[in-house]
Design brief:
The structure is a single chain. This protein is mainly α and 958 residues long. Helix content is 62%, strand content 2%. The protein contains 28 helices and six strands. It has helices spanning 5-8, 29-36, 48-61, 67-77, 106-123, 138-142, 183-203, 245-251, 260-290, 292-361, 363-372, 376-392, 403-430, 447-459, 464-491, 510-545, 564-595, 605-626, 632-662, 672-682, 719-737, 742-765, 769-772, 780-806, 814-854, 865-881, 887-912, 920-939, and strands spanning 79-82, 85-88, 693-694, 697-698, 708-710, 713-715. The strands form three sheets. Strands 1-2 form a two-stranded antiparallel ribbon. A two-stranded antiparallel ribbon has the order 3-4. Strands 5-6 form a two-stranded antiparallel sheet. The longest helix has 70 residues, at 292-361. It is elongated and about 205 Å long. 23% of the residues are buried.
Length: 958
């Protein structure tokens, strides 16, 4: 296989594998090969077979394995160096077509060889022409019935690229031929080829051998051997032309000379030509003798072939006669049946086409009939179907040439008619009078007509009708509000100039505004119900048009024609319709609320509650009808409520400031109404009444009490503290009545309590009451009353916080968290203030104890004056705070004072070097302490177990 792979290889070798101008296939291949690779033989009689073997060996040397070997060969044999410049000679007649004749440098020559003789030849491989390379001719391309009209005919150039080439894939009917399929053939032919080559080599005559005797058939009459090489080459040329002077001179040398010599030359030339003729005749005779058997075999075969031809002719004649008989008896009648069937089919097609034309001819009357019954969808479907038939089935029918334009114009007319009818319907439906009962659901006016109009608009994909209805509804809302304002103003006597929007901002009374708002909300709610009814009809029609399931029997027979995209657009527009109209109604009502300034009129909480009730009822009705919530009206109400809350808070804050500035900080009597108020607050009820009876008698007839009882604990309070509780209760009652401003009031309560805390601290701890109220001094009793008032506020804070927290709609909203944080902060401030007051009382007593003990010495008389002063101060402190503060707090204060007394006494004993040694000074100290302890036991300010004598043992140093 390897031996014959080169012979049967279907692929061409790469261009750099052989030298095109040194191989035997070139124009000067023989000379180049002989001069370059085959050395000249010194023996002129070298055998011809040896010379052919050397030429084959030299040609095998020209096969290169790598491109580098090919480049090296070009540099050695196809390149000349002239003055340091390299000139490429690789080409015909030793001239390279791509390199200048004047030469280039060594580096440029290397680049030239790689670019032009190695890589370029690989890219531009020679493709042999075959029958598959033939292109179509121009008439075949222009007359191709399968191609449409060419618009670029005059812009293309004729050639192979005139017709787009299409790659033809492999056929599934043909097997996949591989190299293995040729193995058997190569093996069989290879054996025969080797035998043929061996026989051919052994049969060649060896004319160069001197020992071999020539055959008898090669002998001439004179005994010489006939050899073709004895004949000059000029006679062997196929284009021998005797009229050429050179050829004539070569054939007839010496012709034209005069004399005897010319005659001898003529005779000699005649003998040479006769000799050449004998050689040719002998060789021809030899060839005829060698091939005589082949000639006889050819003649015999010719006779056999002629006999076979006569038999074949007879068979063909019989076959033609039989085919003619079959054609006459079977084929023609069958073909006639097929032809008749085709004629009948064509006639049926023509009949169906005529029926279709008759139906199309009745289109316009049918459209008029459908429009008269308001069946717009069917009319539009008929127009669409007719146009489709005209463009597909009845193309080129002359009688229908104007029908498409007429149908298009009729479709535009229907579209305009639908738009006009819908606008007229919207205006009449929205502006008709409302029903008397607002709870009665609004019915759609002429529902069947509305469904037909909407279906037609949806069939035309004209979805702008939803926006048109929305604008018409908004215009109706604006007209309704304006008309109501005019009616309210007309009922009064004042002359008022209306604004452009239809509302008069500041001239109506608050009661008139409330009546106007209530009437407007009721009317607008009826209008929203009417809009919702129309919206439902639109939605149901869109659902039926899109093929959605609907429960309404009016849409059962409706064919789905609305696409999914258009259905989604219509659905979003319908949702926007309700939202936009509802929001606009809220905005118009919000303008009514916002234009009325509650700051300039004496508004009451009942009026704000009435306003809140109207707004809530309208908002809930809108949410029920439209399914959405709007915040504009509630925000306007909240703004008005905020103004009212600010006014409410400013009035009470100013009142509290006046009360604190005029407070003398003395204990006040507690009226029965305050006691009833605190009892209600302890139960979580802030809605108390002054006229409520207490134990069967009126509160006003019940005498006042000295203290306020809060959950069983007495509170001695100043008048400002009682009024603070009353004001805080008013905030809570107002928040219960007006939940819309509950969060604002909760923050106002925090601000009020913070103001009370800071102002009381300034007046008492800061001694501001000395200048404001004209007090001479700030006593412990004043401090105790302030502390008790702050404790009452600390008791009140959790009830107030729970009350406001219960008014929050969600309970855990951000506003509620902020309010709770504010109450926790104010609670810490009050506790800190109470601690400061307690520290102030302790500081006063501790300073007195320190100053008295600093001048004390253990000497008679007993009790000494410092101990008498300390006991007297303890008694005064007890008389001041015991009736006001609870016993537990009093015990805490005295416990701190007692501890401070022991610490100061221990320091004094250490300073005077007095110890418990039983001496006179020790006895004096014991007597002093006995007097001190008896005073504390008499006051009962501390528990008895803390006033035993053993508790004083720690004053002595161990």
């Amino acid at each position: 296989m390897a031996k014959f792979s080169g012979t049967f290889d279907l692929k061409e070798p790469p261009p750099w594998q052989n030298c095109c101008y040194c191989s035997g296939s070139g124009n000067n291949s023989s000379s180049v090969a002989a001069s370059t690779f085959v050395p000249a033989s010194s023996n002129p009689r070298q055998p011809q077979q040896q010379q052919q073997l050397q030429i084959q060996q030299s040609q095998q040397l020209l096969t290169f394995k790598t491109p580098a070997d090919f480049v090296r060969h070009l540099r050695q044999h196809h390149c000349t160096v002239e003055g340091g410049s390299f000139v490429c000679r690789y080409g015909y007649n030793d001239v390279c077509s791509s390199l200048p004749l004047d030469g280039v440098s060594d580096r440029d020559y290397e680049m030239h060889v790689n670019r032009c003789h190695v890589n370029q030849q690989q890219k531009e491989s020679h493709i042999k022409w075959s029958v598959f390379s033939a292109a179509q001719n121009l008439p075949a391309v222009l007359n191709d019935p399968s191609r449409s009209k060419q618009t670029h005919f005059f812009t293309k150039k004729w050639g192979d690229a005139f017709v787009e080439h299409q790659s033809i894939g492999t056929s599934p009917q043909l097997p996949d031929i591989k190299w293995d399929h040729f193995d058997y053939y190569l093996k069989r032919i290879g054996k025969r080829y080797r035998v043929h080559t061996r026989i051919a080599k052994t049969a060649l005559p060896s004319s160069s051998s001197q020992d071999q005797q020539p055959a008898v058939s090669d002998r001439l009459p004179n005994g010489a051997t006939a050899n073709l090489k004895d004949i000059p080459e000029v006679f062997l040329k196929h284009n021998l032309e005797l009229h050429s002077p050179a050829s004539f001179a070569a054939v007839f040398p010496g012709i034209g000379n005069d004399g005897e010599q010319a005659k001898q030359s003529s005779r000699l030339l005649q003998e040479k030509l006769s000799h050449y003729l004998d050689i040719v005749e002998v060789l021809i005779a030899k060839q005829v003798a060698e091939k005589s058997s082949a000639f006889f075999h050819a003649m015999t075969s010719q006779d056999a072939i002629m006999e076979q031809m006569r038999e074949a002719t007879a068979h063909v004649s019989r076959l033609r006669s039989r085919l003619k008989l079959i054609d006459d008896t079977i084929i023609r009648e069958s073909l006639q049946i097929i032809s008749l069937e085709r004629v009948r089919s064509n006639n049926n097609i023509v009949l169906e086409r005529l029926k279709l034309m008759s139906t199309v001819h009745q289109t316009q009357p049918m459209i008029q009939l459908l429009l008269s019954t308001q069946d717009y969808v069917a009319a539009l479907d008929l127009i669409s179907t007719t146009q489709e038939i005209l463009s597909q089935e009845l193309v080129g029918i002359h009688c229908f040439r104007h029908l498409p334009s007429q149908l298009t114009e009729m479709e535009r007319l229907i579209d305009k008619m639908l738009t006009t009818d819908f606008e007229r319907y919207s205006t009449s439906d929205l502006n008709r009078p409302f029903a008397g009962d607002s709870q009665v659901a609004e019915k759609v006016l002429d529902e069947d007509k509305l469904i037909c109009i909407i279906s037609g608009l949806l069939r035309k994909r004209n979805l702008d009708f939803i926006d048109t209805y929305k604008q018409e509804a908004i215009t109706t809302v604006r007209a309704i509000v304006k008309q109501m304002v005019i009616e309210v103003i007309a009922s009064g006597d004042a002359e008022i100039c209306l604004t452009g929007a239809g509302e008069e901002a500041q001239s109506l009374s608050l009661s008139e505004w409330i009546v106007l708002l209530e009437t407007a909300t009721v009317t607008l709610l009826k209008l929203l119900k009417r809009v919702r009814s129309v919206h439902d009809v639109m939605q149901q029609t869109a659902d039926a048009s899109a093929g959605k399931i609907t429960d309404d029997v009016s849409f059962i027979d409706t064919e789905a024609f609305l696409s999914v995209e258009d259905y989604e657009v219509a659905k979003s527009k319908l949702a926007n319709l309700l939202q936009s109209v509802c929001n606009y109604c809220h905005e118009r009502c919000a303008n009514l609320v916002s234009n009325q300034s509650l700051e300039k009129s004496s508004v009451s909480a009942d009026q704000i509650a009435k306003l809140t009730e109207i707004v809530d009822r309208f908002s809930d009705g809108c949410e029920t009808v439209c399914g959405i919530q709007s915040v504009s009206l509630k925000m306007a109400l909240r703004a008005q409520g905020t103004r009212y809350a600010q006014k409410f808070h400013s009035e009470r804050k100013a009142k509290m400031a006046l009360l604190l500035d005029s407070e003398r900080w003395k204990q006040a009597e507690v009226p029965a109404e305050f006691q009833k108020m605190v009892e209600s607050i302890s139960k979580g009820i802030f809605l108390w009444n002054k006229n409520t009876e207490l134990n069967g008698s009126s509160i006003s007839s019940t005498p006042p009490q000295a203290v306020l009882m809060v959950e069983g604990q007495p509170f001695a309070l100043v008048g400002a503290a009682l009024l603070l509780v009353q004001i805080v209760s008013e905030y809570c009652r107002c928040a219960s009545q007006l939940p819309v401003i509950a969060s604002q009031l909760a923050r106002n309560v925090i601000d009020l309590l913070r103001t009370f805390n800071s102002r009381s601290c300034q007046l008492v701890l800061g001694a501001g009451a000395l200048h404001v109220a004209g007090l001479k001094t700030i006593t412990s009793g004043n401090l105790a009353l302030v502390s008790r008032a702050l404790q009452l506020v600390l008791w009140l804070l959790p009830h107030v916080k729970r009350h406001f927290q219960s008014l929050e709609p969600n309970g855990t909203s951000t506003g509620s968290t902020t309010i709770l944080t504010g109450y926790d902060s104010i609670e810490k401030d009050f506790a800190s203030h109470i601690k400061e007051i307690e520290n102030k009382v302790l500081a006063i007593v501790c300073d007195l104890v320190t100053s008295q003990l600093a001048n004390w010495d253990a000497r008679p008389p007993v009790p000494s004056q410092p101990f008498r002063n300390i006991s007297r101060q303890f008694v005064k402190l007890h008389e001041a705070i015991a009736p006001i503060l609870p016993q537990k707090q009093v015990a805490t204060i005295y416990r701190v004072v007692h501890k401070n007394f022991k610490d100061k006494l221990r320091e004094q004993l250490l300073r005077n070097n007095i110890t418990n040694n039983g001496g006179p000074q020790h006895g004096t100290v014991v007597s002093e302490l006995t007097f001190y302890m008896e005073t504390l036991r008499t006051l009962k300010a501390m528990p008895a177990e803390e006033l035993r004598d053993e508790t004083l043992d720690d004053i002595w140093l161990k």
